[in-house]
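Re: that chain you flagged

S.,

Sorry for the slow reply, it's been a week of failed gels. I finally had a moment to sit down with the sequence you sent. For the record, here it is as I used it:
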Amino acid sequence: MTSLSSFLAKWTTTVVVLAALAASAGVITSGDIAHTLNTAALVLLGALPVLRVIALAVSWARAGDRRYAAAAVMLVSLMAAGVVMVAVWR
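Prediction finished late last night. Pasting the structure tokens below so you have them in one place:
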């Protein structure tokens, strides 16, 4: 489990830095490029929790802990349903 937590920590740091750089570049620039960079920053930050839960679900399923894996799958399903509802509601 230590390798997974160190991997997730490095992954989180990388994504947060990339999102910060994209958001900063989006503030500095203007037009469609700024909109695209700001959208990329939001997508990176929004996808990070989902990907972390998926990685933990896979880890728990491999370790044989089916209850935690099932709870993680249900949580990802709720997150996906929320994204779909927001996308339709827009």
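What I noticed first: Residues 53 and 73 are 8 Å apart (CA to CA).

Talk soon,
D.
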